[in-house]
Amino acid sequence: MHGLHALLRPFTRLNLLRVARSSTTAFLMTATIAGSTLVCDRASFAQLSDSETAELFVELNKPWLRVPEQEKSSTRLFTAYLDMTNPPKPIGADFNQTTVAPGMEGFADVAKWAETNQSMGEALIALENCRVLGVPYGTEGVDPRFVERGLVAVIGIDGDFTKAEFRYIKALETISAYAAAEMYRRCEAGEFDAAFAVGLAHLRILRQAVDQTMFDEKSAALVMLCDALSVHRDVIYTYMEKIGVDRLRKLAFKGYPFLSAGDTERLRRLQMPEGDLVVGEVMLKGAFDAAGQADLEQFSKNFAAMQSRSEPLTGFGAAKRWSKIAEVHGSLDASELKLNDVYDDFWRRWRMRPFDQLLTVPTVLSQLNPVKYAAVTLVAKDVQQLFALRSRLSAEICGTVVSAGLASYRVQYGKWPSTLTNTYGESLPKRWDYDVYDKAQKGFIYESLGSSKRTVECEYGLVDVPGCLLYARNGDNEGNKAARHIAGGMIDDFVLWPPLRALSRGQGE
């Protein structure tokens, strides 16, 4: 792997900020970036000079510094959120964007809530063409109302860089529930243009959120956008006859393919999270002494607590274990180099095409010595988990484009097409018949069922599917006749059309 790693290094990204070690004087560090200040008590970490501190947070917030304020949506979006009334139920497993639908218990209250908050829909539409969401990291200098309502991203809680909370995600979940409710409310009233105007704007806002720079917030935004696309397929299936051919074609050709400028079916412009590297370097520095050697006390304090939070069952004896590790751990210089190697490796993989043979080579992270570089292994985010979410998002977007095209064909001709090729050009753009899980790159699997039905096992139980089936292959890269559905799983298939959730409601599940 070392030979391959060296061979590919000329193609790597520019090295991120490497913050030099400094004195051991404790101080309160602050850095104002784009109207916010990140505050962190440095007492438990190796210290940085004032200039190094400012440079660190400039690097962390650099993506937003390059974007004019009017092209960031978060401030105006959160201002609109502050004016929203509380949803009829708390946002959670029982009430979220995927549970909203006519016929649900309390839908009248949900629809009334959506109608009362139409100003949020107006805000979504006004902000849909912004370049980024641009939530800054920190709370000082942020509108106090945002801080009070949790519309912030906090890193270094109580001076501990192992702790971060992306509290604004809860607001995005509420806005997502609103968007689903508003779409259904508008469709029930026959206002389809208004419904999809809000729905598409919401998708574009979530696409902005997907480009936040930290692993946890990016993961949450990816799942939220995938779920939102599934809501759109539900809405299309429920109302396709009333939506009409022209609107469905417009969605397939001019709506879903353009959630972000420059995106393609492969989502190559979607960025890998790199803010975690900047924070990871600080976390490492906090556990080494001025000579760059592991500090037994800080290793025990910092990393035992971090491991216990992520793996509670390993908490017993963790402090003693990390003290022992500190005695043989690599130096700070070597650890920083390994951390950067881990992210360089992930970055190269992120840019590769699906099924590139180099993707089968073990990652640098997986090959780290588990003792000598235990701290690196702990602070590095295994962003390979995002590879699977990106693949799922590609399938969701492409599948929604094709679903809109299938619906328009059905409405126009009164039947489902015998093959997908019959829909190319007229009902949907051919290039979006793209299955990211297909090694042969021949597109999704489509089956015309005629008068028969296919039973699919899924999280809603056994669902009978009439008419046709559109599905992706999932992580095993094989079609399995859609016997079992898992959205973006490693096995079985990913059924995109008809939407199983909508079918299950009709079948009383």
Characterise this structure.
This protein is mainly alpha-helical and 509 residues long. It folds into three domains: 2-60 and 274-382, no CATH class; 61-221, no CATH class; 244-273 and 394-509, no CATH class. The chain has 18 helices and seven strands. The protein has helices spanning 2-8, 50-60, 62-65, 74-82, 107-116, 118-127, 144-148, 169-188, 192-210, 215-243, 245-255, 275-285, 296-310, 318-326, 332-351, 374-379, 384-413, 500-506, and strands at 28-33, 36-41, 153-157, 160-166, 445-458, 461-472, 494-497. Strands 5-6-7 form a three-stranded antiparallel sheet. A hairpin with a 2-residue loop joins strand 1 (28-33) and strand 2 (36-41). Helix 4 (74-82) runs antiparallel to helix 6 (118-127) and helix 6 (118-127) crosses helix 9 (192-210). The longest helix is centred in the last third of the chain and has 30 residues, at 384-413. It is globular, with a radius of gyration of 25 Å. 46% of the residues are buried.
